[in-house]
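Running this now, will post back.
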Amino acid sequence: MRKWITSAGILLLFWQTASCVFADNSISDSLPKVTSQRPDHSASVISPPSNSLALGLGYSYISLKYSPAKRFSVEARTAFGDGIIVSGGRLYFVVVSKSRTNLYLGPEFDYMHFDVEDVKGAGYLGMLFIGGEHFVSRRLGVVLDFGPAYIHLNDSQLVQGKQTVLNEWELVVNLGINLYFGGVK
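Update: finished.
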């Protein structure tokens, strides 16, 4: 008996579906309309205002970011560690902007100074990065980016008449927050 009821239920479901698809409009008009609409997210689009400044705080860095346009920003940044100071600048090009998230890429160039243990010197870092910023609110964004960095360091002390030089590629990951102020939306 159960198999018969199940078979009848499946047959009835198939018949209802077939009648909606193949019948004329008079039958399908009597059925409730189901529409699939995408929600309007335009009101929830959050991005930094144009012509704004942002104070950035991240894992071992502090920065000041200026956004003259919605898709372009420049940033001065200083990172620090035990006996190491890295200062430089970045350019941000926003390539995708969806709802509360901006995906960006850009170059970074930094000057490095170090004085750790018995080693003292200076050098530079050049990097290409890709990442994103998710806006928790209109004025607060969480950032994450990464990319390959070329590091060139010179030791200021001579060892056996030669200067120690380091040329190396590293993967650099940055995580932080930006607090935006000023600007016009």
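Residues 1-38 form one domain. More later if anyone needs it.
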